[in-house]
Every structure is written in C-alpha cells, then in structure tokens.
Amino acid sequence: MADVTAAEITDAHPDRTPGDNRASDAVSVPGLAALVVTKTAVGAFQVGKVGEYEIVVRNDGPTADPGPVTVTDALPAGLTFESSPDEGVQVDGRVVTWTLADGLALDEEATLTLRVRIGEQAYPSVTNAVVVDSPTEQTDQAQLVDDATVDVKAADPLATTGAEAAWGLLVVALLMLLSGGLFLAYRRRREAVAAE
C-alpha cells in the first residue's frame, strides 16, 4: 500500500521550484481483444464434388489485436484440401492454417475461403471446426472456436460408360442379321418356286 501526500500551493506558501510541477512516465498497455470466428458452409455439398466454407474472423475489441492471429482448420475424415485464394495459407496434411501477421484492428474482420474435395466418408453429413489463436489477451466475449455441420448428398450415379450404347448396337445388329436371314430365305423360296 502506498502513502499519498497532498500539497496545496497558495500565495502564503509559494512554489519555490516551479520547474518540477510536471512529470510523465510511459506506460505500455497490452492489447485486449475479443476475436470472434464464424464458419459457414456455402452451397450444397456432394460426394465427389468440391465444397466451400467461408470463415470470418472479427475483432470486437476493446483494442486492436496486433497479432499474429492464426486460424486453424483440421479437416475431418471425408474432406481434403482443394484450394484457398487467401494469402498466408499453409497446408500440412489435413491441417490448413492461415496467418494474419498484422493482426486485426478494432472492429476489423478478415474473410477466408476454404475449398475442400468431398469424399465418401463425409456422407451423410460432416462437421468441420475452425480455431483462432492469438498471443493477445482475450475478453470473455471472445469466440475462438466455431464449426459448421452440413448435409452431404450421395455421389451422382455412374455416368454412362458406353454399355447402354453397346447393347443398343448389339440389338440392331441382331435385328439386321435376322432380317437378312429372312430376306435370304424368302429369295431362295421364290427362286425355287420360279424354277418349278
């Protein structure tokens, strides 16, 4: 506990050293932020196709988050990394990481895009989580984890491989063979009747 002494300068007690009436001391106040992350699946997901997620990281303050802010998405079974148009993205196996090196100013947000290839293991639904981390102290309002659960449609039935066309050609060939045989039999019979 510190003792505080108060002094009052009056005409009866003048200040003998007016040059020392002011003092300053630099104080470093660490950042305090409330990072909030949201993850949303964009459009329909189907086995064999590419799906897309939108990840938004926002700083609700009360101060800037000088960073670096890292956004990490560990892809679940059934999803594999396809692409991301964003800067600062790194992929290590199934883990996708974005680094926002300059952090986020107060009320600033960053939108990230994640495209994934959808495999059989994702059917009939898949849940994918994202985690945000920063060395800056976070308030109780921070939401550093979010996930998106999306229904996944089954793969399209196999495309025509030519088997149907081959069967069709076989039927046409058999009909032509049968017609040719009937025509030949009719012609021989007619020649036989004409020769009698």
Describe the model:
The chain is of the alpha+beta class and 196 residues long. The protein folds into two domains: 32-153, Immunoglobulin-like; 158-196. Helix content is 17%, strand content 37%. It has one helix and twelve strands, in the order ββββββββββββα. The strands form three sheets. It has a six-stranded mixed sheet with strand order 3-12-10-5-8-7, with no helix packed on it. It has a four-stranded antiparallel sheet with strand order 2-4-9-6, with no helix packed on it. The chain has a two-stranded parallel ribbon with strand order 1-11. A hairpin with a 2-residue loop joins strand 7 and strand 8. It starts with 31 loop residues before the first strand and ends with a helix.
Features of this protein?
196 residues, alpha+beta, 6-stranded mixed sheet, 12 strands
Uncertain segments of ≥5 residues (pLDDT<50)?
none
Strand order of the biggest β-sheet: 3-12-10-5-8-7
Average pLDDT level: 88
Shape field = rod-shaped
Please give the share of residues in helix. Answer: 10-25%
Cα distance spanning the termini: 140 Å
CATH topology of the largest domain: Immunoglobulin-like
* Rounded Rg: 38 Å
SSE string, helices as H and strands as E: EEEEEEEEEEEEH
**Helix count, DSSP H or I runs of 4 or more residues:** 1
Which sheet architecture does the biggest sheet show? Answer: 6 strands, mixed
What is the CATH homologous superfamily assignment of the largest domain?
A: ntegrin, alpha v. Chain A, domain 3
Structural class: alpha+beta
